[in-house]
Request: fold
Amino acid sequence: MKLFHLSLLALGLITQVIAEPTASVQGVTIVSRADNPLLSIQTTLESTTKAVTADLQSVSIALANDAANDIGPALEQLLDNIATTLNDLLCDITDALAKIVGPVLEDVLETLISVLKSVYTLLYDLDGSLKTILTSVSAEVKTLVKNELTTVLNLVSPLVKPLLGFAQGAIGSSQNTDLTGELKSLITELDSLLSSILDPTGELVESLLS
Reply:
């Protein structure tokens, strides 16, 4: 009878382990395929990229129609929209990373790689488009949008740094050299882009100081 009771207990434990999306090893939660908070960042990134691209295209069309001198209000609204969108993305990144404690599994690392690539593309395109726009408008327009541009630039580092910090920590928790090698390259590229965007002598920051 006692042996039968132990067998049932063991069966119950096995069932519980199978049912649980995460496992606990020495008090550390290991995120599994069924519980991947980074997927929410991926979803938000898709909508963020679409929204920012649409805003940038609308201003580019206006500039193509020789509206450089009248673009001030539209550019103000564009930057305000981008700031709101980036802030929403920042909140989602903060919430998602807070849910991950301890080592992560490979599927989470793969999602992280995808997220870093998407963030890089978003910021690279944003940086290039804003530089093109700002070189096409008057000094008066630059002055008009200075506050909005400052808000956008102030969101870039808080958005990127937590992801870079998480990625650096994740490298030490994986034995997959292919994934960690790709992560290291992405960290370097994204950190370099961040430095370029926020360079005090760079085009965007200079437009705030001029």
Notes: Helices lie at 2-19, 38-64, 72-98, 106-134, 139-144, 146-171, 177-197, 203-209. The two ends are 85 Å apart (CA to CA). The first helix runs from residue 2 to 19.
